Each structure stands twice: as structure tokens, then as C-alpha cells.
Amino acid sequence: MLPALLLLGQHTVSVAPQALSDRTFAAVRAHASLTAQDLAFQGIDWKTSVFDGLLEAQRADKPMVMWMYFGDPRGRC
Length: 77
What we know:
This protein has 77 residues and is α+β, with helices and mostly antiparallel strands. It contains two helices and two strands, in the order E-E-H-H. 0% of the residues are buried.
């Protein structure tokens, strides 16, 4: 079974194949691989200081998003 695509607004979501076999390997690999959309956050000019972030947000007249996580972000929350 080939992966189906669902269009949700501007986002495209692939549905994982139901089984792994020689015939579905490429589809499973494509589903599990990172896309440019998945890595878009790396293009953001992240600040490591709250103060620097506040100054930049005020300068650009935009809100500031603060994301904090202690430990490995791939782990459980």
C-alpha cells in the first residue's frame, strides 16, 4: 500500500503504510524521513537569552515565543 496524502490547510501529512515489506520499504522510509517543513525551525534566529529575545521582539514589534525544555526534547514531557 502506497502512502496516502492528506491536505490539511497548507500542511501535507503522509499516512504510514500498514505493514513493512520489501514492497513498502520505500514508502515507510519516505514517511519516516524528515522533510524541509520538519526542519523549518532551524531557520529561525533563536536567541539563547530571554533579554535578547525581548529586545528583538520589541525592535520588530512582534510577539516573543519562549520555549523551554530541560533534558532531551525527544523524551517524554
